[in-house]
Amino acid sequence: MADAALPRRGVNLCTGAAATDCVIDGDTIRWAGQIIRLQDIDAPEIRDFKCPAEQALGNRATERLRELMGSPIIELTRIGSRDEDRYGRKLRVVSDGRHSLGAILVAEGLARPWDGARRSWCG
């Protein structure tokens, strides 16, 4: 069951701590006053990247997530018993009402399914 079905809003990249309803990176958004980690994927880092290839792919994933967040409806769904990650971010599957946005990023080669293990994006 969805936590929230929200009407379409303009979605930008987060540019500071005060930014709202924006994309932080390829697997994290700030939405309705909370930081949301896309529960079903792992995307490359854009800040603490380990190599230029990770940064480049992370930038592409971030921009694509920003585009996908422009869907007319965005649903946030909690799956499983875990509500937050160790950083206090809410864990949610984010969808357009039909498809997981994370699954779209995975299908496009911009992220990988989250399996609980951190792995390098650098080869």
UniProtKB/TrEMBL annotation:
PROSITE patterns: TNASE_3. InterPro entries: SNase_OB-fold_sf (IPR035437), Staphylococal_nuclease_OB-fold (IPR016071). SUPFAM superfamilies: Staphylococcal nuclease. Residues 23-112 form the TNase-like domain. This is TNase-like domain-containing protein.
